[in-house]
Each structure stands twice: as C-alpha cells, then as structure tokens.
Amino acid sequence: MSDADHQELPVFNAVSGSARQLYLLLRCISFADKAQVQITEEGLRFSVEESSIMEGLAFLDKSLFTSYQYNAPALRPSTPNSQDSAASETPEPPTFQISLPSLLETLQIFGLTDQNSRPPWAREAQSMAFSSNILGMNNLCRLSYISHGSPLSIIITESSITTTCALTTYEPAFTADIPFERQSLAVKIIMRASWLHDAITELASTAPSRLTLVARMQRGKPYFALSASGPLGSASVEFNNAASTIYPPTAATNATTPDTAPSLLLETFQLADPSARVTNSYKFALIQKAARAMAVATKVSVRGDAQGVLSLQFMIEVEAGKVSFVDFRFVPFVAEEGDYEEEGESEGEEEVADREDESGEDEE
C-alpha cells in the first residue's frame, strides 16, 4: 500500500451493535460540558475534569464493538533541532475534545435508552414479533474519525431509518491526569455500589460541604465509615461486618455453619498498616457527581493512596457476560490543625464506647 492510500484511510472506524451501552457508560461522567477523547488500539478513552481536583474516566474497550479499526496517524514532521528523535518515530494517539451533551443526545436520538420516553405507537411496534429488536437489528452505531481536525462522525441506524451526525472536535485542553499511586495504596475496599449510593443519598439530606472517609480495624474487624455535616445537621453511615462474621471466611467455618454465616458488607478490606487509621476528607458536591455510576454499577472499589487521592472504580455490566469500568479520582482537602484535634476526640470517644461494649459483654 502506498503512502497516499494510507493517508486516505480514516484513523478510526468502529461499529457497535448497541448505542445503549455506549450511552450508559458515558452518561456516568456527564458532569462536564467537554470530554477529552483519546483513540488507541485498545479502545476509546473519555475523560472529564473539574478544577483539576476531580476527574472522571470512561474506557470503551474495543471488545464492546463488533468491528474496531485503528490506523495510526502519519508522523508529524520533526524540527531539525529535535532532541527526542527516537520518541518522534512513534505517532501519538489522536486526542481531541468534543461536546459531551451533544454526544449523549446523539446516542439516544431514537430514545433507545429510555423506553418510557417513546410514543405509544413506537412501544407497541417494538413488541411485535417481527420488530427490529427481536430480529437483532437494534440501533447499529458507527463511529469514525478521519484525521486531525476532522469531526467525529456518528451514524445510527434503526430498521430503515439512518441518522448521521458530525460532532465538531476541539484541541485538547488538558493532558495530565490526577496522579494516583497504585503501588502505594493506604486502603482498598470493595463493596456493592448500591450500598455506597444509598449512603451518599442519606448523607445528602444535611446539605454537607465535606465528606470524610474513615477506615480502620475495629476490635479485629474491618470498619469503614462515611460522615458529613452541614447546616441541617450531621450524619454518618458505618459499614462494619457483623460480630458473628469471621473475616476472611475460611472453608472450615463455611462448612460448619453454612446457613448462619452472614454475607460480608465489605468484600475486600486492605490497609497498608493494619494498626493505622486512614482518614481523608473530600468535597461532598464532587463525590455526589459520581451518583449516576453508583446507581448503575454492581460493585465499587474504594482506593486511597498515600497522598490521600481517592479513586472510585465502578464495575458496570453493559450486557450479559461483559463488564466495563468507570473511574473517578478526587483530590483531598489539606488537613488543618483543627482537623487533627477533632479526629483525636472522635478516636477517644470510640475507645470509650469499645470499653463500654466489652464491659457489657463481660457482665452478661
């Protein structure tokens, strides 16, 4: 193939059998107007950020598409004084910004994501024996990107109706992600995403400005708490495995008490220092912007690194047997002197409560 023929090929061309799964993932990070898109051989990476203290990442793996073609763009001419000649031989993945609300509106142009939004005649037509849903022709979605500066083309087909949209692309505004040190985690917790969603919803009733996360071992068992305070009061939600729960469960205990052993609230609980107490605070309004991901995800991995950066990674089932991940990162508040005093007081109160519980058990 000649260079001229290679230049005529689009950089990216993919076909998805369902626009719904793309919409489901991208809607989780729809808290910003502009999304930065990076096209790679492995898939599409969408990222949004707010004030450099919150970032949302959604990766559309190429396995979500029935057809995925990526042609690396041609190398840009390097300057004669370029010192990094070796790096210039590898083309950088195409990166650009697009309007995220426009993209979401395009993906649901036929109302595929919400059946109740369809008119009655459309819902009745879908239930017919020879409807496009049953015949497997539901909302074919084609994405393509020709070259640098070109629009992102989206073609959606449902039965005999075809809609073509061209979304304007912009120069990328940010290139660096919020740093998160995966190799130096202070805490890692895996739990049901619905429980985290319920907790955040309950805490929102006090109109709080801060959300404080506390993780530690309490009397030999994992303890995880979320607390918030606002003008309407304060509230906290605690996730503590039941006293009768053995953590982690062993084959012997499960064999002897298969019916009485309760399920663990915290499926995974890891502390870098089991004797330490991990406490960090974040802006509640930013945490709340991940509520859509909490509502649709099956599980969430709550991780905090040594610097206090929080990562909420949600596992979302897009279809039977296929899962995707949406990741949020949050920069913590800088701890002040007063925060340490309050933390010390709360620790003292918890120790007194623990001693009272132990004394009560001894009397019994």
TrEMBL record:
Taxonomic superkingdom: Eukaryota
Entries under Pfam families matching the protein: Rad1
Record GO biological process: DNA damage checkpoint signaling; DNA repair
CDD domains for this protein: PCNA (cd00577)
The entry's keywords: DNA damage, DNA repair, Nucleus
Residue segments, region Disordered: 337-364
Compartments where located: Nucleus
InterPro entries: Rad1_Rec1_Rad17
Family: Belongs to the rad1 family.
Protein name as annotated: Rad1-domain-containing protein
Organism: Lepidopterella palustris CBS 459.81
Lineage of the organism: Eukaryota, Fungi, Dikarya, Ascomycota, Pezizomycotina
